[in-house]
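Below is how a single chain appears once it has passed through the pipeline. First comes the sequence as given, then the structure the pipeline wrote out for it. We keep one example in the README because the format questions we get most often are answered faster by looking than by reading.
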Amino acid sequence: MTYKEVAEKAGFPLSWRAVGNVLHKNISPLIPCHRVIKSDGTVGGFNKGIQYKKMLLRKEGIKI
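Resulting structure:
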């Protein structure tokens, strides 16, 4: 999903930046925030680093 799609599902369609901020502060491995990407298809940020996010996505079979 994209940050925008997460915001829409939460009922706040214009709050994609807030979604990014919340996910950036997430420390729970139970919330798979590394799966959220930007609307243009690029990976976006990750609180443990972009390279780690890419590694997790590749491990899950996602082509980057």
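The mean pLDDT is 94.

See the next section for the split statistics.
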